[in-house]
Write a structure and sequence with these properties.
- With about 500 residues, this protein is of the alpha/beta class.
- The protein is built from 20 helices and 15 strands.
- Strands 1, 2, 3, 4, 7 and 8 form a 6-stranded mixed β-sheet that branches. It has a 4-stranded antiparallel β-sheet with strand order 9-12-13-14, with no helix packed on it. Strands 10-11-15 form a 3-stranded mixed β-sheet, with no helix packed on it.
- β12 and β13 (about 350-355) form a beta hairpin.
């Protein structure tokens, strides 16, 4: 007891190190370390427990550091892949020739786990300060087929507001796009975000909590003015708010499985679900709903920037001789004047934009299928005027975006005028740049009614449409000017032609 007191006094009061205490008392550092680890003095009962009856055999003492190391590593791993006492026993037998009994080892492992068990601190977050982010996944029925979707889940730490949006992949453009929608939903930007070490945000893990972040993610932070903080490796529990949110969303918003026709429909449903949850749920340890606390938290947010962040991946590509660029195995058309040039493609979640010399030259809906081709007829009009025979078989001309009347009219012009009909039809297609596709379609439909499939007829119809002219027979009597009703055309006198020809008429 005296020795225990002396060691504790020298350490706690005089502030000596273990080495200095051992030297001063003339004992080993192991003895000093053992007493300092004890919270209670070695009373008679404790001495009998510790010294009268050995807690473990020499064999267990030999492997105890190994057991502690394995258990400490387990705290940094996923909860479903940790050592059991039985697994520790087998490993010790196989790797360290352990000769002790399994029952004794089980008792030791249970005590060591209890000793090493992590203790958590209750947290109370400041309004507007932090949000936590994580990905989840769930199944849905999309157009009648089961589809796995990925859930962008974000939660405000103070008010507990949740936002979730579904995507078909985990690519960086989806990651960035989620923040655009989330901050607009929240009504502002919190000061700090807490993240896992996901590849779309972190390029390299440095020492401690330092990270080399992805350039696009840094651009997002600079645009919205928030700071990213990252959890320790394999320590997802550090963002416990959103960890629980992912499972809650899957069990409540996705049971039963949503049955939707598009991702837009699913995300509209999820948006309504988030708003409803905010109205119904209460913030723990308060009497306020999440929605009420959210209104207070909005006052502490940074305001949204005037311009939306471009949540896209930027890639360089070359326009091939068929005026196509290749993006993730799919091909998309651009205007044929850019053949052979290098252009930039901005890949968004739902679309892609092609840019050349700071000018947007093409825009397409993004496809998640493989090895597909997407063309726009307007991109090929100049070359079709030079090669009119290609109109019928051009990929862009077969698109469902082209009204069927175009194909019917072309067939008739080709039948009646052959190659000249192809050439004239290509000239007709160019007219849509001046009057728009809608009016050109209307002109073709009106010309089709006359059963005269000629360029001149369509051109006349276009002039009537664009000049807002009207025909006299379409006017009612009430709207017709009076002087026009009284106006009569005098018939020609054929005899006058005889006087001009000297009386000779043929």
């Amino acid at each position: 007891m005296a020795q225990f007191h002396n060691i504790k006094f020298l350490k706690e009061v005089e502030g000596l190190s273990q080495r200095q205490i051992a030297k001063k008392l003339g004992i080993s550092r192991n003895t000093v370390s053992k007493y300092l680890k004890q919270n209670e003095p070695p009373t008679t009962i404790n001495r009998q427990k510790v010294y009268g009856k050995k807690e473990s055999s020499d064999e267990i003492k030999r492997v105890l550091p190994i057991i502690d190391q394995w258990l400490e590593e387990d705290f940094k791993r996923w909860g479903k892949q940790k050592h059991t006492a039985a697994r520790i026993f087998r490993r010790l037998e196989d790797e360290y020739q352990f000769k002790g009994s399994e029952s004794n080892l089980r008792k030791v492992v249970a005590k060591r786990k209890k000793k090493l068990q992590e203790i958590f601190i209750p947290l109370d977050f400041q309004l507007g300060h932090q949000f936590q982010f994580d990905w989840g996944e769930a199944d849905i029925f999309l157009q009648g087929r089961i589809q796995r979707v990925y859930l962008y889940c974000i939660q405000l730490s103070a008010s507990r507001v949740r936002f979730v949006r579904a995507y078909l992949h985990l690519k960086q453009e989806a990651f960035l796009d989620g923040f655009v929608h989330a901050f607009e939903f929240f009504g502002g930007v919190p000061t700090e975000g807490l993240f896992d070490n996901l590849k779309t945000a972190v390029e390299k893990i440095l020492q401690g909590r330092d990270r080399l972040e992805q350039e696009a993610f840094l651009a997002l932070q600079a645009h919205y003015l928030f700071k990213a903080e990252f959890c320790n490796v394999r320590s997802g529990n550090e963002k416990g708010r959103v960890e629980g949110t992912v499972g809650y969303i899957r069990r409540n918003a996705f049971v039963p499985l949503p049955n939707v026709q598009s991702m837009d429909e699913l995300n509209d449903y999820l948006l309504e679900w988030c708003l409803k949850e905010a109205e119904q749920r209460t913030v723990p340890y308060t009497k306020e709903t999440v929605a009420q606390m959210w209104e207070k938290e909005k006052e502490y947010f940074h305001p949204l920037p005037e311009k939306r962040f471009e949540a896209c991946k930027l890639v360089s590509c070359r326009v091939d001789k068929t005026s196509l660029v290749t993006i993730e195995t799919n091909k998309y058309s651009v205007p044929c004047r850019f053949v052979g040039q290098t252009v930039w493609a901005k890949i968004f979640v739902d679309r892609l934009i092609v840019v050349a010399q700071n000018e947007v030259i093409a825009e397409h809906s993004r496809s998640y299928e493989q090895n597909q081709m997407f063309t726009i007829l307007d991109h090929y009009l100049e070359i079709l005027v030079k090669k009119p025979r290609a109109v019928r078989d051009a990929h862009a001309f077969q698109s469902s975006d082209i009204p069927e009347v175009f194909r019917r009219f072309h067939r008739k012009m080709r039948e009646q005028e052959g190659a000249i009909g192809d050439r004239k039809f290509a000239r007709l297609l160019l007219l849509h740049r001046e009057i728009g596709m809608e009016k050109l379609t209307q002109a073709l439909l009106e010309a089709e009614k006359t059963q005269v499939f000629r360029y001149e007829v369509v051109h006349e119809k276009i002039q009537r449409l664009t000049n807002n002219s009207f025909m006299l027979e379409n006017l009612s009597r009430e709207k017709t000017p009076t002087n026009l009703l009284d106006y009569k055309i005098q018939k020609s006198n054929i005899a006058q032609y005889g006087q001009l020809t000297g009386g000779q008429m043929k």
